[in-house]
Amino acid sequence: MVIAFVNPEVFQFGIIGRRWLHLDSPRHIMLIPTKLLIHKLESLGMKVEMITMTDEGTIACNTGGWRFFFHHTCVRPYTNRTLRFISFNVMNLIGKAVSFLPRPIDQSDGMGSAYTVVFRKAVESNSSCSEKTTPTSDHVAKAKAA
User: Fold this and answer.
1) In 6-28, which positions are buried (b, 16+ CB within 10 angstroms) versus exposed (e)?
2) pLDDT score for 99
3) Alpha carbons 72 and 1: distance in angstroms, whole number
4) Prior bond to 26 cis, omega within 30?
5) Contact 118, 6 (CB under 8 A)
6) What is the tens place of the pLDDT at every residue in 82-121?
7) pLDDT of residue 129
8) DSSP state letters, 35-98
9) What whole-number distance in Å separates Cα of residue 91 and Cα of residue 94?
10) How far apart are CA 59 and CA 53, in angstroms?
11) pLDDT on residue 137
C-alpha cells in the first residue's frame, strides 16, 4: 500500500501558518502526521517498507508552498492589468528564488511538505507453514507425469 499525503509537521507550515498552500481547505480535511499514520497501520498488521520526503513531487510541493506564500502575501489587487501582471510575475519569481534558501531544511528528515510511505502486510509466522520446501527432481517428475 502506498500513501502520499501533506505533512503537517513541516518547516513551512510553522513559518507560514494559515497561509500555507497545502492546507488547501476543503480538499484536505485532515492533516495526518507521519508518526501517527505509521503507528496506526503497524497496529493493523502493516510493515513500513519505505518513507520518503525527497521525491520529485515533494520537492515541487516545497517550492510551490514558498511561491504561493510570496505571491499571495505581496501581490496587491491592482486595478491596472499591467501592474497586476508584473506584480504577479515578479512575486512568483521571488518566491521561486527564495525557495532555494530553505531547501536544506525542507529536504531534511521529516521536514518535506509531503510524504510518501510504502507499507506491506506483515507476514505472520505459522508453525504449519514455516517449513520451506524446494522442488526436487521427484516433484518435477510427478508434475510432468500428471
Assistant:
1) bbbebbbbeebeeebbbeeeeee
2) 75
3) 36
4) yes
5) no
6) 777 777 778 778 777 777 777 777 766 777 888 889 999 9
7) 47
8) HHHHHHHHHTTEEEEEEES-SHHHHHHHHHHHHHHHHHHH----SSHHHHHHHHHHHHHHHHHH
9) 5
10) 8
11) 44
Q: Render pLDDT for 23-39 as a digit per residue (tens, 0 to 9).
A: 877 777 788 898 999 99
Q: Which three cell numbers stand for residue 23?
A: 492546507
Asked if residue 123 has pLDDT above 50, the reply is: yes
Task: Please report how the helices 56-74 and 81-98 are oriented relative to each other, as an axis angle in degrees rounded to 10.
Answer: 140
Q: What is the dihedral sign for C-alpha 77, 82, 86, 88? A: positive
For residues 63-84, give the mean pLDDT. Answer: 74
Residue 121's SS3 state is strand
Grid-cell match 513500513, residue found: 48
Q: How far apart are the first and last CA of the chain?
A: 38
User: Residue 27 contacts by C-beta under 8 Å, 6 or more apart in sequence?
Assistant: none
